[in-house]
Amino acid sequence: MATTPDTRRFRLSDQYQALKSRLHQHMIRLLEDGDVRLEDWSRTKASDFIRNQVRAYVRDQRLPVNQSEADALAEDTLNELVGFGPIQALVDDDEVDDIVVNGPDHIFTERHGRLGMEPLRFNDDAHIIRVIQRILAPLGRRVDESTPMVDARLPDGSRVNAIIPPIALDGPCVSIRKFREQPLTAEDLIRYGTADAETLAFLEAEVGKRRNILVIGGTGSGKTTFLNVISQWIAADERIITIEDAAELRLRHEHVVRLETRPPNLEGERQVTARDLVRNALRMRPDRIIVGEVRGDEVLDMLQAMNTGHDGSMTTLHANGPGDAVHRLQLLAGFAGFNGDERTLLHQISSALDLIVHVSRLGSGERRLMSVQRVGEVAGDRLPMEALFTHPDAEREGGRS
Ligand SMILES: Nc1ncnc2c1ncn2[C@@H]1O[C@H](COP(=O)(O)OP(=O)(O)OP(=O)(O)O)[C@@H](O)[C@H]1O
Ligand SMILES: [Mg+2]
């Protein structure tokens, strides 16, 4: 593909965007006139067809573009017609983990843990929305003014979130967390410097002892990945029920029941919440319950499950440190209508949780296991913790998550 610096610069220019729109219109007319449905063709056939048509158009219209620029136009036109527009190349790029679009001119990716801006752009807000609709259409979902936010999972397991104006003030935003063919393993965590072998061996033993574990960290800090790694240590014959908003965990166990929440439909009905699923899971004779992330009412049922014979359950929580995690659990439980005083709640939390594992994304993009805390007994209105492991970065990075 054409990626010389000149072509890259040309691709960002207004002139190129205008050419691209013109070509796009031209191709749409051509396809309609010829009754051609590119979706039904193989990618190679569609790509050859478009390349030829673009070359012919460039020649006939005497457009001032060279060969590699014409190739770029052909590629982009194909992606507009049958793919996800400017971000299709990023979706296809195995080195890209995350794709973030913040309005037409800001497209970022995370590659090898580092976030960087991509030399790509959309024409305008409407262009981004068209691509969002194309991503969502096969899932039977769409965004519009009445549903300005969507969270969805693509057939390949990638996670997509989109939010559009007027809710998003600076233009439509899309975040795609790509599904890794091969999920990270404990060995990967060691190789990437996330955790050391000794600490992981300790955690493996704790999982074997059926400890209730809470993995905490900021957005994208690697909580789900860590949860997936430690879940692999659950004995092969245990019956596990996983509850997630979008199924990300990949357990190799035989007795796994995977449950996924369901957002309400357009009429606001048929929602199935994490709380519904935790309650249902308790009736399914699980050995362990794994909740992908607690962020709502389900916190109460999860705490209760952990306190009543479902030892070895695990979940993640968005929090910046162990103290913050306890605070957030209290808040969530309060919102969920916990009826009892603060002491009782703290007791509930203390007896539910055995370990808190804190992961963090450093400024450099690397992920680190910051600390492993053993949750102690309530003393007064405090919940003491014993740090079993603390990474030196935990002090240096302070409150970072
Ligand atoms: N230890 C790690 N080393 C390198 N990359 C990692 C590591 N852990 C996770 N990642 C990558 O970071 C991204 C975010 O990981 P993950 O989904 O586990 O984070 P999260 O904290 O659960 O995010 P969210 O807040 O969105 O739920 C993924 O692309 C993942 O592949
Ligand atoms: Mg997660």
TrEMBL record:
CDD domains: VirB11-like_ATPase. It comes from the Bacteria. Transmembrane segments: none annotated. Residues 82-359 form the Bacterial type II secretion system protein E domain. Belongs to the GSP E family. This is CpaF family protein. The lineage of its organism: Bacteria, Pseudomonadati, Pseudomonadota, Gammaproteobacteria, Salinisphaerales.
